Automatic annotation (TrEMBL):
Residues annotated as domain Fe/B12 periplasmic-binding: 76-333
Signal peptide: 1-23
Positions of the UniProt region annotated as Disordered: 33-56
Alphabetical list of InterPro entries matching this protein: ABC_Transporter_SBP (IPR050902), ABC_transptr_periplasmic_BD (IPR002491)
PANTHER family: HEMIN-BINDING PERIPLASMIC PROTEIN HMUT, VITAMIN B12-BINDING PROTEIN
Membership in a protein family: Belongs to the bacterial solute-binding protein 8 family.
Protein name: Hemin ABC transporter substrate-binding protein
Organism: Actinomadura fibrosa
Keywords: Signal
Amino acid sequence: MTRPNFAAAAVALTCLLPLGACATGSAATSRCGPATVAAPSGDPTPIDRPGTPRLPVTVRSADGTSVTVRDARRILAVNLYGSLAEIVHALGLGDRLVGRDVSTTFPSARALPLVTAQGHDLSAEAVLRLDPSVVLADRSVGPPEVLDQLRRAGIPVVLVDDRETVDAIGPHITAVAAALGVPDAGRRLAARVRTEIEAAASRVPSGNRPKTAFLYVRGSAGVYLIGGKGAGSDAMIQAAGAVDAGSAIGLSGFRPLTSEGMINAAPEVILVMTGGLKSVGGVSGLLKLPGVAQTPAGRDRRVVDADDGTLLSFGSRTAETISALANAVHRTCG
């Protein structure tokens, strides 16, 4: 999967001008105003009866190597979207986490030391200082040389498949649970999450499927991208009962934002991260980016922003995020 090296973190979804709410024009805009939909705000809910890790275990890492884990008392779980640490916590092992990446922001993890330097590059020195007994990661973090350095230091490094889709959540949970010696807890957590996602999907509004474009923007770094097939954002947009505008015009992964691309995508809704929206000066600044003002979403200021974190975190709380996103995308002003 092609994706940028960006940080994600999260809590709420804000529909700055909900779909179907307003006609173009300042008067209509002033009548609608912002509407906020709460998304996951607390810690991931641990599974009942998590059990004690039974170790040692030997598991197959996603890079094809066999890794033996002998100790799960000091766990470091890091990836681009923060989902691995969330899964560890939901398995009932959150008190064993010793560090975090910038995307791991649930309350009980915020005080943990950061081990990522710029973006999602791991700092070998920061990791080694924490003396983890096992490291769980995927290919979204690196560089590979740092992971090799950790292995040479004798730390078991288990890579988890990095597919960012709703269907991949269950396999990710079972892979993490297997590496930590709690396979039964993993199966029960995967079943619980699957049931929650199915329930959330059943509540997604049917009928109209608004065309929605996810823009990853960081004004301070001059990064402006649109998501397409396989970016992760496409899976959440589809789960929320919308059509991913980038995928619809044949984009894959993340691609540079261009006027031609935005006009061709013609989204009815634009989805962005809260931090990214702030970095470009809010909705007014977003409309100055290439092609945005010329789209139906831009003309009607239909922008949904999601605090960086849960939107692209395919973990144990995905059902809550699907419900919140669907609510924001489909809601109309009262």
